[in-house]
Write a structure and sequence with these properties.
The complex is a heterodimer of chains A (498) and B (170). Chain A has 21 helices and two strands. Chain A has a two-stranded antiparallel ribbon. Chain A is globular and about 65 Å long. With 170 residues, chain B is an all-alpha fold. In chain B, helix 1 runs antiparallel to helix 2 and helix 2 packs antiparallel against helix 3. The chains are: A mainly alpha (498), B mainly alpha (170). At the A-B interface, helix 4, helix 5, helix 6 and helix 8 of A face helix 5 and helix 7 of B.
């Protein structure tokens, strides 16, 4: 056991640096005066993350480290980039958001960093134990972040729902992991794959294990029958955290899915791909149909994110390098476009609760042409219309489905995209073609709503940075996807060699 | 002989776990939970894992349950009636759960564990605690370190959520 320990600090350098950064921010938070503004912690976190981002992209080393627990391959580097980009955006929006909702907690920043650390551990893990620990680190951080507005009963309710269902799903996942251990005698992915090739028939225990592991991670991704927490949690959570939940936690769970099923259990692809087929089809249709009837913009984005998860699932279950690379590319694009959309929503939300309804977006183009313009870019991309990244990503995934002869799934994907066009276009329609609501404008200009109005929507430079970066990213990934998709294909190649 | 003991402990553990959920008084629930934890500790001993058994008794039966009972007493949680919480869902839920358990039972009955036994034979496990210690600091070093961060977050999170915010009052 000891001879293969293979300790290599370079392989986990991004994780070490991120932990150090989070601990530094924490220490600074402790020595700061009590009433002092915690914005400086946000800036420090962003600078640190900007330094870690290139480091995580370069620290790619072959082989498994720490007794086969950790991998530092192109796959984890790609996902690390997604997580860090999402974390930078989230912290940038949060700085404005926290000021707005009057929360001055330094914990917020470093718990976001710790959540990112958990995601990175998940994407880099080559062992079920490690994977579970990373998942718990991420989930625990999110429980705290969702509940951070302790004064708001909505936030606490959201956190409670997320916590109870998350704990349950962790239990189910652990049950699946223990079954896997019982069948394979190991928790290491490479060794499980070796065992699975030796015994090619599907052991009933392993079938149970596969089902439980799928259920456990489906909660985190919010696939259809396990999505119940997500709209409520997104609505109650601080909006930037909802953005990070929908992008980061989803990407991490997909990374885990790909590690478990493409590395450890590829032999049983005919079995598990059938389960994923059903989940994916149901999730796509359910998410896009239910999103139509939503009145609240955050809930609409929550259901749209459920539908997106269903489409991303296609690329994963076809088990080809094209499909898997499509998943990674999609998640990268999704990080830009979804956080971009959530940024506009965050800017729009008022402490009074106005700005959460889709109707409040009427006539936005007249009052705030720039916001309406970027919001349209993000929504167009989410709907999958060229020349945006959303289209390219959907194109890669659906063409991989057709290549692998999953015609029905591709058809369902196209249908759900067509349905989703309706509710994205509705918001754009409201922004550009509808008159602003005269009544709300009137009251907002009045004495009572005066303070509310006076908080200018375009107040913060940090949010503008996010909007510009996200819009540029969304469009750039749409018109010039080649280097990114090549990187993704190179990263998943090792999965399909055996 | 060992199998008989296994079934005794296992059945008691499941029965007391059901009692935890079914009991109306939260203090009774806590006591049933203690019984459940003790049975699981006994199962660990049957599995030749005395260290885990001891940790289970110390941490869960000792520390966690005392805190739990304190919380129940301080918050003065009253009795609740089962009917208040579960309206008509039980009509669907109970058959569904039974069906699920049946399906699992069929699968488990059909299954055979074909995996080779791991490196930890009964002889290797004679120095149980030593083996666990060595494994934690060699093979499982990385997750072990991540767990330390995890515990830190749990600590900070609890404080962050409970502490009153000073900044917002001015």
């Amino acid at each position: 056991m000891l001879e293969t320990l293979n300790i290599n600090l370079t392989a986990i350098l991004p994780e070490i640096l991120l932990t150090a950064l989070a601990l530094c921010v924490m220490a600074l938070d402790l020595i700061m005066r009590r009433g002092a503004s915690r914005l400086v912690l946000g800036y420090l976190s962003i600078i640190g993350l900007l330094i870690i981002l290139p480091v995580s992209c370069v620290s790619v080393i072959d082989g498994a480290f720490y007794g086969g627990m950790v991998k530092a391959d192109g796959f984890s580097a790609y996902f690390n980039a997604i997580f860090i980009i999402a974390a930078i955006f989230t912290i940038l929006i949060s700085m404005d958001y926290l000021k707005r909702v009057n929360i001055n907690k330094g914990e917020y920043y470093y718990i976001v960093l710790f959540a990112t650390l958990g995601m990175m551990v998940m994407a880099a893990s080559n062992d079920l134990v490690n994977l579970y620990v990373g998942l718990e680190l991420m989930a625990l951080s999110f429980y705290v972040l969702v509940a951070i507005r302790t004064a708001s009963s909505k936030s606490v309710e959201a956190a409670l729902k997320y916590f109870v269902l998350g704990a349950l799903s962790s239990g189910v996942l652990l049950y699946g992991i223990s079954f896997t251990y019982g069948v394979a005698g190991t928790t290491n992915f490479t060794e499980i794959a070796f065992q699975a090739r030796r015994v090619t028939i599907l052991d009933p225990y392993l079938l149970l294990a596969i089902v439980f592991i799928i259920v456990g991670f489906s909660f985190k991704i919010a696939l259809f029958p396990f999505h119940l927490w997500s709209p409520d949690t997104y609505e109650g959570a601080p909006t930037p955290i909802a953005a990070l939940l929908s992008v980061g936690s989803k990407a991490a769970a997909f990374a885990a899915f790909m590690r478990v099923f493409l590395v450890a259990l590829p032999v049983y692809q005919p079995h598990w791909s059938r389960i994923f087929w059903g989940l994916s089809a149901a999730t796509m249709l359910y998410g896009s149909v239910v999103a139509i009837s939503q009145k609240n913009i955050v809930r609409m984005l929550a259901y749209s994110s459920i539908a997106h998860a269903g489409i991303i699932m296609i690329g994963f279950l076809v088990t080809s390098d094209m499909g898997a690379a499509g998943v990674m590319y999609y998640l990268l694009v999704y990080a830009f476009m979804n956080i971009g959309a959530f940024t506009v929503v965050t800017l729009f939300i008022r402490s009074s609760g106005r700005g959460e309804s889709i109707r409040d977006y009427r006539g936005l183009a007249v009052r705030h042409p720039w916001l309406a313009f970027v919001m349209s870019i993000f929504l167009v991309s989410l709907a999958g219309i060229p020349p945006t990244g959303g289209f390219t990503a959907k194109f890669f995934i659906l063409s991989s489905a057709i290549n692998a002869q999953y015609y029905w799934l591709a058809v369902i994907g196209v249908v759900s995209t067509a349905i989703s066009l309706f509710f994205y276009a509705k918001v754009i329609f409201y922004m550009y073609l509808s008159e602003p609501d005269a009544l709300t404008e009137g009251t907002a200009g009045g004495a009572a709503g005066g303070a509310d109005r006076d908080l200018p929507i375009m107040s913060s430079a940090t949010c503008n940075i996010v909007l510009v970066a996200a819009a540029v990213g969304t469009v750039l990934l749409g018109i010039y996807p080649t280097p990114f998709i090549d990187m993704a294909i190179k990263a998943v190649k090792p999965f399909f060699l055996t | 002989m060992e199998q008989i003991f296994f079934y005794i402990f296992a059945i008691l553990a499941v029965a007391s776990a059901i009692a935890v959920v079914a009991a109306k008084n939260p203090v009774h629930s806590a006591v049933y939970l203690i019984i459940c934890f003790l049975q699981v500790a006994a199962l660990f001993i049957l599995l030749r894992a005395p260290f885990l058994a001891a940790a289970q008794v110390f941490i869960y039966v000792g520390a966690v349950m005392v805190l739990f009972l304190f919380a129940v007493l301080v918050l003065n949680v009253g009795k609740e009636r089962l009917g208040e919480q579960i309206h008509h869902q039980s009509v669907i839920v109970i058959p569904a759960v039974i069906l699920l358990l049946l399906m699992m039972g069929i699968l488990v009955a059909k299954g055979r564990l074909t995996a080779p036994m791991g490196a930890f034979t009964e002889k290797a496990l004679e120095k149980n605690t030593e083996v666990i210690g060595k494994m934690l600091f060699s093979k499982y070093l990385f997750p072990f370190e991540v767990v330390s961060v995890l515990l830190l977050i749990a600590l900070i999170g609890a404080v962050a959520l409970v502490m009153k915010e000073k900044g917002s009052q001015d």
